Amino acid sequence: MKKKTSFISKFYLILIFIFLYAPIAIMMMFSFNSTASTYTFGGFSLHWYQEMFSDAAAVKSLQNTVVLAVCTAVIATVLGILASVGLFNSRNKLYKRSMMTVTNIPMMNPEIVTGIAMMLLFVFAGTLVKKSDVLGFWTLLIAHVTFALPYVILNIMPKLRQFDMNIYEAAVDLGCKPYKAFFKVVMPEIVSGIITGCVMSFTLSLDDFIISYFTNGPSFQTLPIYIFSMTKKRVKPDMYALSTLMFVVILVLLVMMNFAQNRAERKDKGDVK
Q: Whole-model pTM above 0.85?
């Protein structure tokens, strides 16, 4: 009976993975298609990758997306470290619980609500300074940092709770300056959470569409918005090539993040032993 149940559970698991990843596999296969057909594979070719990189608008959108994602990851990580340390050291439990609840709101709130609200905020701010074309890179950056910051905080906070603050206090008592003690004692213990939060911020910014759609302007177009504009026409395999590159980049980042987490867990187990 147990073997039968195990077989059925594995079978359902395989079906779920097929359902999730078969469309991506088909998309990746047709990105190497030698013809413009999106339903008949005519042979292996790198033509559509060359076509994609020869498209100036696509390359510009890709550059914009990478620059935005990197800036979002850096700013959200720095702010997340400061916010996490501040919340962890707070003595007021009510304040700490309230701040953690507020931190969860951007993750639970529907993206379309966040996007519309931030668009209205930026437009209102633009009217105050009498500027009509306020939407652009900076509004996108603020919006992306806003929804990425909670993920950084929620990845760092558990690492801080696991850390024995007596070690930090001992370092300070022995003459180490507080900021040096933080970087030499605390930072190595929470670095896995920092890396995880940074990678999550980068990937979330890289593939965000809904919030970017409402907060971007004509002067700065991201890749998801460019791909969406292309779907209004006949989709060619060069869009498949572009999506394949995005999928591969995110996959590599996730593998690196898991590797860093596993390495940190092995180190923690070694320290305990």
A: no
Render each residue's pLDDT in the chain as its tens digit; 273 residues: 566 667 777 888 888 888 888 888 888 888 888 777 777 777 888 888 888 788 788 888 888 998 999 999 999 999 999 999 888 888 888 888 888 888 888 888 888 898 999 999 998 888 887 777 788 889 999 999 999 999 999 989 888 888 877 888 888 887 888 788 888 888 888 888 888 888 889 888 988 888 998 988 888 888 888 888 877 766 677 788 888 888 888 888 778 777 777 776 676 666 555
Q: What is the 3-state secondary structure (H, E, C) of the chain?
A: CHHHHHHHHHHHHHHHHHHHHHHHHHHHHHCCECCCCCCCCCCECCHHHHHHHHCHHHHHHHHHHHHHHHHHHHHHHHHHHHHHHHHHHCCCHHHHHHHHHHHHHHHHCCHHHHHHHHHHHHHHHHHHCCCCCCCCHHHHHHHHHHHHHHHHHHHHHHHHHHCCHHHHHHHHHCCCCHHHHHHHHHHHHHHHHHHHHHHHHHHHHHHCCHHHHHHCCCCCCCHHHHHHHHCCCCCCHHHHHHHHHHHHHHHHHHHHHHHHHHHHHHHHHHHHC
Q: Which amino acid is at 56?
A: A
Contact residues for 150 (Cβ-Cβ < 8 A; gap 6+): 103, 104, 106, 107
